[in-house]
Amino acid sequence: MLKLKNLVVAATLFVAAGAMASNFRAADQVYVPAAGHLSGASGTFISDIFISNLSTDSVTVSIILSSGITGTQQNFNNALTLAAGERREINDFFPTTLGLSAGFGQLIFNACKTGGICTSACPGVDANGNCPDFRPISVESRIYQILSNCAATYSTAVCTAATSQATQPTTGQLFAGIPWYNFVSSAASGAGLDKTFVTGLRNTGGAGSNGTYRGNIGLVNASQFSTTTLVVKLFDGKTGAQIGSTFTQTLAPLGQAQPSLGSIFPAFTGATATNAYVTVEQTNNIKTADADANNCSDGCPAFFAYGSVLDNASGDATTLEPQFLVQLNQNAIFCIYNQTCKGTFTIKRAVKHQ
After folding, report:
1. Which residues in 323-342 are b (16+ Cβ under 10 Å) and which e?
2. Do residues 226 and 296 touch, judged by C-beta distance below 8 A?
3. Measured by CB atoms within 10 angstroms of the end CB, which terminus of the chain is less buried, N or C?
4. Three-state DSSP class for 50?
5. Is 157 exposed, middle or buried (0-12, 13-18, 19+ CB in 10 A)?
6. Is the dihedral of CA 20, 26, 32, 37 positive or negative?
7. What is the pLDDT of residues 276-290, one digit of tens each?
């Protein structure tokens, strides 16, 4: 299928909105920035997926799994089919739907009318990669941990009763699916929407240490048509002073990384390592050889960033969502709620449908 869409100013504005505006999550292409089935410091991490067909047609969904900083991609064409209006819960998504016993990365869900043509051969496809057979879906994900240290957190009775994966106590966090038009981009610098921040970060101890927390930063190249370098800076929440040195991460197309705070900002550790935030922006976008052929002469730069803070005793994690540093202006609010916009804008897809 055709896709990854380039974030332009008007599209970026949706992400910056408040409770209602940020709930525009339906699209024919949806990213889940972190999903997997793999072993972690406190247990096994597993992803459940909740997918909704918001179309009156049957839809067939193809999926891209992209892993690591090199963006190693696996394509799962026609992975599942949903009836008109169907909502489906899929437990332990990697082995259940992808047939993988282990793995971790970002997932990109591409929805097409069943029997339609949503590849580059789509009849009627426009210059920005939009095809008449694309259909809207939404995706939610719970990534959770089956505890390996059950007795350290729960009662003996609870742990004794947990005889299988299905009955084990778990801790988990939400990753809401992100529609293709909601990524951040250096192309939106003119509106001040090329940078995002993540707050609520802590790094007061290591796994298994009661009363302490640790953190991770998720960095995702959302473009299929460029390599990018993400620039990450850590700041004291109270004083605004930068902590440590600037960290950079180069990601190949659709590459992703989730470094720990302690590894990228080693000075930020100990009992006082709380109330901090990071800013993330991108630079040095290098387009791929096929970028021009896909109407991405600038490489369609696009990225996501997110944070996680984990309780070191239980392994319980909380997702820290990114935010823009500016508010929506009045014209942008009118565009969202009245769908009446001044001027014109172009939205390009940054990933192809499979």
Report:
1. ebeeebeeebeebbeeeeee
2. yes
3. C
4. strand
5. exposed
6. positive
7. 999 999 999 999 999
pLDDT tens, 50-107?
999 999 999 999 999 999 999 999 999 999 999 999 999 999 999 999 999 999 999 9
The whole-angstrom separation of Cα 348 and Cα 328 is: 22
Domain ranges of the chain: 2-352
Structure tokens at 164: 């299988």
- CA 119 – CA 275 distance, rounded (Å): 46
Q: CA 73, 77, 82: angle at the middle one, nearest 5? A: 130
Structural tokens at position 83: 């009836």
Give SS3 for 14: helix
Close Cβ partners of 86 (under 8 Å, ≥ 6 residues apart): 52, 53
Cβ neighbours of residue 136 closer than 8 Å, sequence gap 6 or more: 26, 27, 28, 54, 55, 111
Question: What span, in angstroms and rounded, lies between the C-alpha atoms of 183 and 179?
Answer: 8
β-pair partners for 109: 30, 63
Cα distances (Å, whole numbers) of residue 244 to 212, 237, 264, 276, 321: 21, 14, 9, 12, 22
Residues near 93 by Cβ (< 8 Å), separated by ≥ 6? 35, 37, 47, 48, 49, 141
Among candidates 106, 251, 240, 265, which has minimal Cα distance to 177? Answer: 106
Q: What letter represents residue 91's amino acid?
A: N
